[in-house]
Amino acid sequence: MKKIIVLVSSVIFSVCILAQSTQAATFVFPGESNQNTTTIDSEINKTLIVSGENVFVDSVIPKDLIALTGNLTTNNQIGGNLLSLSKTTYIKQEIAGSAIILSSDAIISQPIKGNLYAGASDITIDTEIQGDVFVASENLTLTKNAHILGDTYARVKTLDKNDLALIDGKNDFKYYKTEKNWTDNIARAIIGFFTLMLLALIIWRFKPKTFDTIQNAMTKKWGTSLLFGLIFLIVTPIIAIAILPFIITWPISILIITAYCFIIGLSPIFASYTWVNKILKLKFHPLATIAIGLILLTIIKIIPVIGGFILFGALLFGIGASVIVIYEKIKTNPKGGK
């Protein structure tokens, strides 16, 4: 129980710092060109938030780095914390704070002075971690250069630990198997599918243009959608909890939490519609399109570790695009006029 409290408290603390740092940050998104590589080599004086397919951070980042990328490589020092939601994350220079990494593959070859929170299919630690390490991975590799000064909590399928790798603190490795209770999983999947289809039917019946409106926001402003989705997911509950204890503002807190759950619940619908329409380029009735997308997301979710990341990314897109559409609607009609 103690380690769960430590993990949750540490992650919340790190996320709060990252969320606060977005108030004053440098934003870098890919331009309209077809270039697949983004190199950050100019002077950065504050937190950097970057998005792109292949991102190389060559500049010193004095504060935090938030990366929503395909592939991230850090070639210079990060003075604060790192949040990487990337397909691959390659840490090649020191991180002065903590690192939160959600990737398919993560290679950490330079020291992290804070804690490491990592979830990836394959994780390689080839350096010193001065804080605690929390890892969920299919394959974890600790090389001869690995040295963890704090405690290590790992949930892995396979562990490749070199005899020279050092762990100074508590060593808690647990192995998981892939066997699951397929009956319960299938039942949950079917219930979830029909619940989402019912919501989609209601939206299509009363607001049929909503699907295309959110699809446009998701495809034309994909970087902003991803960022807004992440910020909404992190910051909204913090605000709601902060104002909950006060008599005057607790109804507002309840409304915020309700809207938060509602938007998150609808995000798979919009992500499925956009995915099938724009990525797979299949044209069907909107409800059939959503059904196909939801089935595909359900299948992808079954894939260990990676499936969860893909689903999380799809949810971020859906959430962010929904927030953008709602914001633009309020901005266009501030008084609720037609």
TrEMBL record:
Entry keyword set: Membrane, Signal, Transmembrane, Transmembrane helix
Residue ranges occupied by any DUF8173 domain in the UniProt entry: 184-323
Signal sequence extent: 1-24
Pfam family, one: DUF8173
Record bears the keyword Zinc-finger: no
Keyword Nucleus: no
Transmembrane segments: 186-206, 226-248, 254-275, 287-303, 309-327
Name used for this protein in its record: DUF8173 domain-containing protein
